[in-house]
Q: What sequence folds into this?
């Protein structure tokens, strides 16, 4: 089973342009999403995907009021905070400690005295699926990781898409359709 949904948002109902969000998923719990801008004509909708934040990145903060503790937060590329994750040291032969995110606060706290190894690994909560490897520099008190979980992927492999309008909604080449046009229906709220 596969689902694909587009949401079109206009400032005014009469506008022929705006922003869109695309959400796709499979029955085995894989998800894709994309967003960007669209322009609409009588027969077509032209999508331009926003690809500006589609790389893993790290933001750090030093000189805070908790210099004895490292705080780590995890966000996806869209900036949505992920609350279910854990951090481990890359060299598990010396230490097997796992630091889990506080579910209410959504971040991991590691006492700096425990940072014997500066190479850390980000894991999805409750799994051995490594999502991202990173290093901790000296005098860093907070780390914000902007990393996508490979199970929740962006549709950034495409930068544009054209939807062809018809009476039922529109057609476009869907995922896993071998390049064939797929009918999408329009649902009004």
A:
């Amino acid at each position: 089973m596969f689902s694909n949904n587009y949401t079109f948002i206009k400032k005014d109902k009469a506008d022929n342009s705006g922003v869109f969000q695309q959400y796709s998923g499979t029955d085995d719990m894989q998800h894709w999403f994309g967003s960007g801008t669209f322009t609409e004509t009588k027969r077509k909708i032209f999508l331009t995907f926003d690809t500006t934040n589609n790389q893993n990145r790290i933001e750090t903060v030093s000189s805070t009021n908790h210099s004895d503790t490292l705080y780590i937060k995890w966000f996806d590329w869209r900036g949505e905070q992920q609350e279910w994750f854990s951090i481990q040291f890359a060299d598990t032969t010396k230490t097997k400690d796992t630091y889990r995110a506080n579910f209410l606060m959504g971040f991991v706290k590691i006492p700096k005295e425990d940072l014997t190894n500066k190479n850390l690994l980000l894991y999805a909560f409750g799994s051995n699926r490594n999502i991202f490897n990173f290093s901790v520099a000296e005098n860093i008190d907070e780390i914000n990781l902007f990393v996508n979980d490979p199970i929740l992927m962006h549709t950034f492999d495409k930068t544009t898409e054209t939807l062809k309008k018809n009476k039922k909604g529109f057609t476009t080449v869907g995922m896993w359709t071998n390049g064939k046009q797929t009918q999408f229906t329009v649902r009004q709220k």
Q: What stands out?
A: Residues 4 and 97 are 40 Å apart (CA to CA). The mean pLDDT is 82.
